[in-house]
Amino acid sequence: MTVRRSVIAGVGGYLPERVLGNAEIAARVDTSDAWIVERTGIRQRHIAADGQKTSDLAIEAARRALAHARIDAGEIDLIVLATATPDLTFPATAARVQAALGVTQGAAFDIQAVCSGFVFALATADNMLVRGQAKTALVIGAETFSRIVDWTDRGTCILFGDGAGAMVLRAEDTTPERGVIATFLRTDGRHHDLLYVDGGPSQTQTVGHLRMIGNAVFRQAVEHISGAMLEACRLGGVSIEDVDWFVPHQANQRILDGVARRLSISPDKIITTVAEHGNTSAASVPLALSVGVLDGRVKPGQLVLMEALGGGLTWGAALVRL
Ligand code: UT7
Fold it and tell me: With contact defined as beta carbons under 8 Å apart, do 164 and 48 qualify?
């Protein structure tokens, strides 16, 4: 039996050159390398150069994913870009990426689900490919959170970094066990105030800064992420034990450990980049996947479970076979 599936043809990631270590942050706010490492696992994060925009990061990640897939940009007929830090309020950052890649067909638009954005974008692109609305998609998560972080707030400025990750998806008639097998998305807007930006075009006419009640988000994270992972597995007809690699949103090492403990997942099946990348919001999942694929750990044919939770609150999971 063959079915139409979104098959993963390639992945790519890009991190800006500048690395910001914990010691440098500790010189600015009342914190320490020891506190940050113990409470988050983060040792460093990358920061976009002056003038380097979210679209610049996205374009580089997209080019790398296209090269990995050996696909010409001219074949792309859908770009779904997840970001909470667009270049401008409008048009979509995806439109800039489309033009820069020389793509002149199909649709390009942004998705806003903060740190869960890539999972939401992947689910959206998958549905469009399976419905025959496009043939070859670029799904991108790209962020410059350094622009919206309050660098005087030690509770948040230690966590975030800039970066982009991309995936090329191609619609193929194949066995049901390949490509995107199941996605699961949830939002609970009642938790708006736990994680938000205190600016925006309609409410304040400013860009604003990120505000978070970290420990309250933390408490929500382990439970919702674990639930989403189990649900994606149930929808895909597999069990957690069948999954070869877990590619989580990289928010905090303690969240990754908590989920692993709850679901009895061995740490050596988890791709972890939080120490080097920090939390890159919508970019973190595709960046981590590209690290795992490009260093040869995640191999063709293996079952991969991605997950994320972010502002909204939003959360979700995606089960794919490479
Ligand atoms: O990706 C989107 C989703 N976001 C997340 O998943 C983030 C989830 N939250 C977290 O990762 C953690 O809650 C944090 C890392 C943000 C904070 O860790 P925590 O263990 O939850 O600490 P806390 O907020 O409960 O604060 C404990 C103490 C407080 O001091 P008092 O009130 O006990 O005296 C804070 O003021 O730690 C203090 N603190 C710090 N101390 C040194 C908070 N930030 C810092 C800091 N350095 N950077």
Answer: no
